[in-house]
Amino acid sequence: MSTTNRRLETLALLQAHPGISAPKLAERLGVTERTARRDVAQLRELGYRIDGEAGRDGGYRLASGRTMPPLLLDADEVAAVAVGLRTAIAVDGLETAATTALAKLTQVVPSRWRARLTALADVQAQPAHSRRRAGRDVLVPLALACRAHEAVRIRHSGKPVDVQPHRLVALRNNWYLVACPREADRWRTYALDRIEQVQPLGTRYAVPEPPEDPGAFVSDALAHGPWRHRVRARVHTSPDLVHELVDPSVAAVVEIDDTECELHFGTDDLDWAARWLAYLNLDLDVLEPAELTGRLHALGEWLLSASEPRS
Q1: What's residue 132's pLDDT?
Q2: 278 is in which domain, residue-wise?
Q3: Which has the higher per-residue pLDDT, 53 or 203?
Q4: In this predicted structure, what is the pLDDT of residue 172?
Q5: By three-state DSSP, how is residue 91 classified?
Q6: If phi over 0 gives left and psi between -120 and 50 gives alpha, with beta otherwise, what is residue 297?
Q7: Among residues of the chain, what percentage have pLDDT more than 70?
Q8: Predicted pLDDT of residue 210
Q9: Helix 3-16 crosses helix 22-29 at what angle (to 10 degrees)?
Q10: What is the band of 1 on the pLDDT scale with cuts at 50, 70, 90?
Q11: Cα distance between residue 175 and residue 304, in whole Å
């Protein structure tokens, strides 16, 4: 039996047999009494509360209030579980289970990891099929900084910048940090896959009022970021239908009345914009830029040509 498995078995025996003696524990585990006592001591060093009573009738027991054996997870495994549960909260049907599981995990992990776990629980997650990787050395320090309202120096796209972090958001295919640069008057969005280093600064900057909904803030920033082209299209159908079809991080839906609305979004690639608008399969008119209308016509001609039978 490996050391890890033996410690799991030790915890299970303590749960099932409160007050079990060291000799009995050693017998059940198939080890010496010295090894059994050493395992208990090492579990205590990890932060698990195991009470011991001396004397002939003495023994070990888990501290009162435990309803299940504590999990033998290391710090990185705790972080992974916390992020996974926080993301699951955004999945329809799993909200309650994920929330209660996260609360239970917080109760049983060693106290010295609780700050890390609580910080990761503040990550705002939204549904996604996949995400680009955010490194542990970036995600965890930023989560802790957001929780502690502590300024950090990040290396973003190769350049250092001092920011006051507010919230981490998991959206679509990436992780984002909502933060305000030092002495700036507005909040910004930083993609975590472009952050190479995080250094806590041990201070707090004066910043404007943070966005009420960090998830919506990131979505809006992605839809209206520093793009080369600003697109506006009039859609001749119900805004409710368009809301169902359009991800808010791709485009904003501006309602006009019950039968019409506008799509506003930015892009560096007008050919992509033409393909995306065609994919929506909606009755629409491009308002700007004029070049996009030409790209749509070219796309339509190519589709007609590609669908013709080859002789």
Answers
A1: 47
A2: 224-307
A3: 203
A4: 63
A5: coil
A6: alpha
A7: 73
A8: 94
A9: 130
A10: low
A11: 40
DSSP state of 130: -
Say if residue 73's pLDDT is above 50.
yes
Domain assignment present for residue 43? The answer is yes
Residue 134 sits in a domain of what CATH number?
2.30.30
pTM exceeds 0.85, yes or no: no
The one-letter amino acid at 181 = P
How long a stretch of residues is the chain?
A: 311
Q: What total of structural domains would you count in the chain?
A: 4
Whether the CB-CB separation of 105 and 78 falls below 8 Å is answered with: yes
Q: The tokens 């805004």 sit on which residue?
A: 239
CATH of the domain at 270: 3.30.70.250
* Of the candidates 278, 220, 290, 274, the residue with the CA atom closest to the CA atom of residue 245: 278
Residue 216 resides in a domain: no
- For residue 68, being part of any structural domain is answered with no
Residue 96 shares a structural domain with residue 115: yes
**C-alpha radius of gyration, the chain, whole number:** 27
Which of 121, 141, 160 is the C-terminal boundary of a domain? 121
- Is 162 within a domain? yes
pLDDT, mean of residues 123-137: 54
DSSP state of 268: S
**Distance from C-alpha of 215 to C-alpha of 249, rounded to nearest angstrom:** 9
User: How many angstroms separate the CA atoms of 105 and 168, rounded?
Assistant: 21
Rounded distance, CA 238 to CA 245, Å?
Answer: 11
What is the three-class DSSP state of 152? strand
Reported confidence tier of residue 194, pLDDT bands at 50, 70, 90: confident
Confidence label for 160 from pLDDT (cuts 50, 70 and 90): very high
Residue 174 and residue 96: Cα distance in Å, rounded?
24
- pLDDT (tens digit, 9 = 90+) per residue, 247-273? 877 888 899 999 999 999 888 899 999
